[in-house]
Specification:
This protein is of the alpha/beta class. The protein is built from 13 helices and seven strands.
Length: about 425
């Protein structure tokens, strides 16, 4: 609990720092503002290269157009080399801009726009399709909506100028007439996905804050429980101890009676403390069902998991046991079973976990460890047997209908 609390608090502090950092007015959330942290640069780099490579795939059509639109071999080679240089700059320029100021980024973006315009000389009017990369690059490094809007408008005006220069009929025949429409579409897409990314970031911060507040609330609840359990008892113990100390030489019998009360109160307080700690360590079946679903999904395992609301299906006195068995069983499936499918079934008195993996050899409580084969749990399974015995339940293992391992805990009828 302390480790989980510390992790949640550290995460909450990081999120508070992130939330408190000033965001540029109407910024693109995927763009990195000046003065980023190493983590922000790492995330931006991952996002950039994932999308940039995809954008370059479409540029293969432009290279094909260069080699199919006529002209000498030398002209084609020069045009291809110019495009490759532009593509290399497109990929590498963000690495130079992550930690630079906005003004420096504007200068570099202007240089990229100029370089894109110069492609008209070796490539011809078809070079307008490479200008789409400038719009995309601006969205990732500009960190200002107004700058992206200006860039989109400038590119559209330049494309209209090219269309006017080559003639509307020629531009329509070569498809260049549609370049401004595609440019506006890319700008709008960046805005849409940017807003979506911002919403996801805010949701992540909100979820982390909820987790942190849950930890704080749990601490407060436990503190209240301890105060309720010990506060009154220890106060009375202190008062009766003082009274007994004053009466020991005056009224020995009454002093003895007071000390007996002190002993009784101390035992009651100790019992209450144990109950409070036991409740604090109680496993939640609903929470474990949610955790199991998330863990299986993260491990790319198809899981049939009852919803968290189904925890009420199980009898009250076995929910904690089922939660521990579920946690141990799912953990071992992910670690050892090499399974692709897991099925979890829950009834009032039984919980069953089945998979289609390689199968796990169970270690009976107190029994010998098999000479070969993966082992389910070891001490973990022995601990589950102890928990099951405490509530009159039994744990059995065997082969699943899915072809893998089956772990079942069942409490007898009462």
């Amino acid at each position: 609990m302390d480790q989980a609390t510390g992790t949640a608090e550290a995460r909450g502090a990081a999120d508070a720092h992130r939330a408190s950092r000033p965001r540029p007015d109407r910024s693109f959330p995927w763009a990195v503002a000046p003065g980023p942290t190493d983590d922000e640069v790492r995330v931006a780099r991952k996002r950039w290269y994932g999308g940039a490579v995809f954008g370059l795939l479409w540029q293969a059509l432009l290279v094909v157009a260069v080699w199919t639109n006529g002209g000498s071999v030398a002209d084609r080679v020069v045009a291809t080399a110019a495009l490759l240089c532009f593509y290399a700059a497109y990929m590498l320029v963000p690495e130079l801009l992550w930690r630079r100021s906005l003004s420096f980024r504007v200068v570099v973006l202007a240089g990229m726009a100029l370089l894109a315009g110069l492609l008209l000389v070796p490539v011809g009017p078809a070079a307008v399709w490479s200008w789409l990369l400038v719009v995309a690059l601006c969205g990732f490094v500009a960190a200002r909506l107004w700058l992206v809007v200006v860039m989109v408008a400038a590119v559209c005006l330049a494309e209209f100028a090219v269309v006017t220069a080559v003639g509307w009929s020629t531009a329509a025949a070569n498809g260049i007439l549609f370049a401004p429409v595609v440019t506006v579409s890319i700008g709008a897409s960046m805005l849409f996905f940017g807003r979506q990314r911002e919403a996801e970031d805010r949701l992540g911060v909100a979820q982390d804050e909820i987790t942190r507040l849950a930890v704080v609330e749990e601490r407060a609840r436990f503190s209240r429980d301890l105060h309720d359990v010990l506060g009154h008892s220890l106060t009375v113990v202190a008062m009766k101890s003082e009274l007994a100390a004053r009466l020991v030489d005056v009224d020995t019998e009454r002093a003895k009676t007071e000390m007996q009360d002190v002993e009784r109160l101390a035992r009651e307080a100790l019992q209450g403390l144990r109950q409070a700690v036991s409740g604090y360590r109680e496993a939640s079946l609903g929470a474990e069902l949610v955790s199991a679903r998330a863990a299986l999904s993260a491990a790319s395992i198809t899981g049939t998991v009852p919803p968290a609301s189904d925890e009420t299906v199980a009898a009250t006195d076995v929910r904690s046991l089922f939660a521990w068995v579920l946690r141990e069983g799912v953990t071992n499936v992910i670690r050892h079973a090499s399974a692709s499918t897991v099925r979890i079934t829950l009834t009032r008195t039984a919980l069953t976990i089945e998979d289609d993996g390689t199968g796990l050899l169970a270690v009976p409580a107190g029994g010998p460890v098999p000479a070969a084969g993966p082992v389910l749990g070891g001490n973990g399974l022995r601990g589950l047997h102890e928990r099951a015995d405490a509530v009159g339940a039994t744990i059995t293992t065997g082969t699943s209908d899915l072809g893998g391992f089956r772990l079942r805990v069942e409490r007898g009828r009462r």
